[in-house]
Specification:
five-stranded mixed β-sheet, alpha/beta, about 15% strand, about 525 residues, globular
Length: about 525
């Protein structure tokens, strides 16, 4: 955010910044940095603590290596970097998997148990003075995912298999203690199945697949959708042996169910066949490259989220007169922005960029991004309000108050006009390059059981300042997650069977998921 000209920095409003852990080891710090890109900084916390202090040391105990909390989603990470031990493969694997995986699972179970029993006893510092800043969901509604990240076996795995990327094999036939049998001859080196078949599912990522999974599924929504569907698929009895999580991801990413969502879909014969080169074919397909190019605009949405989140964490978000700040309340608006998946963020980025360009030519411009009523994901709408800083207002804070209150009127007006919505999030700012600098404000409003008097008052407010007058001009935004391309690279001389070609019903379903009124 560029500080507007003539603005009092209002240092008296600044709060103590929230200091997060950074990870203790190099590998923990790397995990934290990757996670922050995927989940953004307001929802990922390395090395949180529980106030379960011992008599010897008056400090808390580390809960886990990384905790992600966003809305109903909780992701618990345990990371282990274990050097490969000596011995022939079956013996060495047995030692390594116990140290790397079994011990991590114990940490995950302890962390989950603590969160369920003591959700209010979670801290950012080892002295347990700084409370965890984000509200945890109720455990009845929480969706908890457990991820073990293990490092130290990839090079040996690559040599063992005579090539490949060195990622671990996913073998659903291995259950529980079969991963570390008493007789080492029963070991299945470099293979992972269902670690805790009678408990919550545990995902195991290695140093190869961690980067791929968190890099490709780089929103909280995209990752948790994948984890949820993978858990269900794994325990359905249909999961085949998969040579590397990256190939499972590619299979998922290139298949769409009849609702327009990514899914583990069987082929025409009812089989689930995940090829050994599924990932290579996916990332070298021209449509994958076209998707990456089309996604570039979506990171404008990420930049807006990061701007609000960083100011909240750093204690530098300015609160206007008549308002107050509380992290657990103010985080909610930005959270709903973060819950949008990458494909939807693409249309949001396009809408925001277009609104900024249009706003540069007008005194006020409003753009509403709203799901259709009959869509499956129709609860949250977003808007951007671009309002010029008029010359007759000589106080920037006064202008900002006018802008925020105008945005609040828009928010209430939208909820009344579209009663199927549950909430609306609005962003307001001045147009780019106006010359005064730039600031952004965010408003959040939830649906309410409006009385006739409430509706009349809201309509009166709208009329007084010219908000939502007349008909909104709809503009449908359509597109494909994997855009069609005109040129095909020479390596692909045959029709791919990877599932990237969708039938007409699936194409329509995916377009409907993205479609917006503006």
């Amino acid at each position: 955010m560029k500080l507007p000209n003539g603005v009092d920095v209002m240092l008296d409003q600044y709060r103590e910044p929230i200091i997060k852990g950074e990870g203790v080891t190099d590998s923990e710090r790397y995990l934290a940095s990757i996670a922050e890109k995927t989940f953004l900084n307001l929802w990922s916390y390395p090395n949180p603590y529980r106030d379960q202090k011992s008599d010897v040391k008056a400090i808390g105990k580390e809960l886990c290596d990384l905790l992600v909390v966003c809305d109903r989603h909780i992701i618990i990470f345990s990371e282990k970097s274990i050097a490969w031990p000596s011995g022939e493969p079956r013996v060495a694997w047995g030692r390594w998997v116990k140290s790397a995986v079994r011990d991590s699972v114990k940490q995950l179970k302890g962390a989950e148990r603590w969160l369920k029993e003591h959700p209010d006893r979670l801290f950012l510092d080892k002295f347990c003075k700084v409370q965890f800043p984000i509200s945890l969901p109720s455990m009845e509604n929480a969706s908890i995912h457990r991820i073990v990240v293990v490092k130290g076996a990839s090079d040996i795995c690559r040599k063992h298999h005579g090539g490949g990327r060195g990622s671990l094999i996913i073998n659903p036939g291995i259950q529980g203690d079969d991963h570390w049998p008493i007789d080492v001859n029963d070991n299945t080196p470099f293979s992972i199945g269902d670690i805790d078949p009678n408990g919550g599912f545990v995902h195991v990522l290695d140093e190869i697949t961690m980067d791929i999974i968190l890099g490709e599924l780089d929103t909280i929504r995209d990752l948790t959708d994948y984890l949820t569907k993978k858990e269900k698929f794994f325990r359905s009895g249909h999961m085949p042996l998969v040579k590397g999580e990256e190939n499972l991801l590619a299979y998922y990413a290139t298949r769409i169910n009849d609702d327009g969502e990514h899914e583990f879909v069987a082929n025409e014969s009812g089989e689930f066949l995940v090829k050994e080169d599924e990932y290579r074919e996916w990332v070298s397909n021209p449509r994958y490259l076209a998707k990456k190019e089309a996604d570039r605009i979506s990171y404008l949405w990420d930049e807006l989220i990061s701007s609000f989140a960083s100011n909240m964490l750093n204690g530098t978000s300015i609160v206007l007169d008549g308002y107050d700040f509380e992290m657990k309340r103010n985080e909610i608006a930005v959270r709903y922005m973060a819950l949008e998946h990458r494909f939807r963020r693409r249309s949001h980025g396009e809408a925001v960029l277009g609104a900024l360009r249009e706003g540069a030519r007008r005194d006020r411009f409003f753009r509403l991004m709203i799901p259709l009523e009959d869509s499956s994901d129709n609860e949250t709408a977003f808007f951007i309000l671009v309002l010029k800083y008029p010359d007759f207002i000589d106080n920037y804070e006064k202008y900002r108050q006018v802008r925020t209150r105008t945005a609040e009127v828009y928010a209430k007006g939208v909820l009344v006009k579209f009663p199927y919505l549950k909430r609306v999030v609005g962003i307001s700012r001045e147009p780019p390059e106006q010359g005064h600098g730039v600031s952004e404000d965010i408003v959040f409003a939830e649906q309410y059981d409006w009385s006739d008097e409430d509706r009349d008052d809201i309509q009166k407010e709208c009329n007084e300042i010219g908000v939502l007058q007349g008909q909104l001009v709809p503009r449908t935004l359509e597109g494909q997650e994997y855009p069609e391309v005109e040129e095909i690279v020479l390596e692909f001389a045959h029709e791919s069977s990877s599932g990237q070609r969708m039938n007409r019903r699936q194409r329509r379903a995916q377009k409907a998921k993205r479609r917006k009124k503006t």
